[in-house]
Amino acid sequence: MDITITHAILLLVTGFFAGIINTLAGGGSNLTLPALMMMGMPAEVANATNRVGVLMQSIVAVFGFKKHGKLDTDDKVPILIPTVIGGLLGAAGAAYAPTEWIKPLLLGTMLLMALVILVKPSMIAPEYGASVNKVSQTPSSWWWLGVAGFYGGFVQAGVGFVLLAALAGSLRYDLVRANALKMLCTLVFTSVALVLFMIEGLIQWLPGVILAFGTMFGAHLAVKMAIKARPEAMKWFLFIMTLVGCIAAYFS
């Protein structure tokens, strides 16, 4: 695929903002997927190519949160197992499922999360210092993490909200630590999805790598923002991004 200077700038800019949004909340792919499709990519190719940027931003974010001591790893294996299984199944589904399924799934997820944040915000944003539950203590978290993995493997856009529902809502991590674990989960199931998309030959590497540079810079900045932000500010940012995600999903 030929990449013009305009395309490269578009991918870098949208990637940068998507890296910030995905690291602090979710839904950044609502920017990058349309950008990729504007270049003439079919939806399934854009969906696959987008994962290159998601993978690289996740690596940057995970190392950033770890550096600042915000990445809890005591329970990481029980958290990752259902997420990876779900991601594998979701990626397999995305490779073969009709593309018209993506929009209703994305819009439904955004609307559900907006409703939860509006009606019961404590479910998504527990108070800082709240007692954290282990996966072994909350069997329902296996279901939530598996659903998040499947959704992320299938469509990616908005998966951050589903992961936050499992990590903050079910396991009671505060938003900063939930975001750190969210990026770790995203890193793992995106790696799985990327391998399947590579096998299917769905990835356009040059635009994917250009996009990745933007997402990496965005994720680096977002980690610093997350560390310094007040919990209330993080909660409002999450709510606003959910509403934006609803609008983007409706008009995409």
Automatic annotation (TrEMBL):
A Pfam family the protein falls into: TauE
Bilayer topology annotation: Multi-pass membrane protein
Domain of life from the UniProt record: Bacteria
Membrane spanning stretches: 6-27, 77-97, 104-123, 143-168, 180-199, 205-223, 235-251
UniProtKB keywords: Cell membrane, Membrane, Transmembrane, Transmembrane helix, Transport
Transmembrane helix as UniProt keyword: yes
Compartments (UniProt record): Cell membrane
InterPro entries, sorted: TM_pro_TauE-like, TSUP
Family to which this protein belongs: Belongs to the 4-toluene sulfonate uptake permease (TSUP) (TC 2.A.102) family.
Protein name: Probable membrane transporter protein
Annotated organism of origin: Shewanella psychropiezotolerans
Phylogenetic lineage: Bacteria, Pseudomonadati, Pseudomonadota, Gammaproteobacteria, Alteromonadales
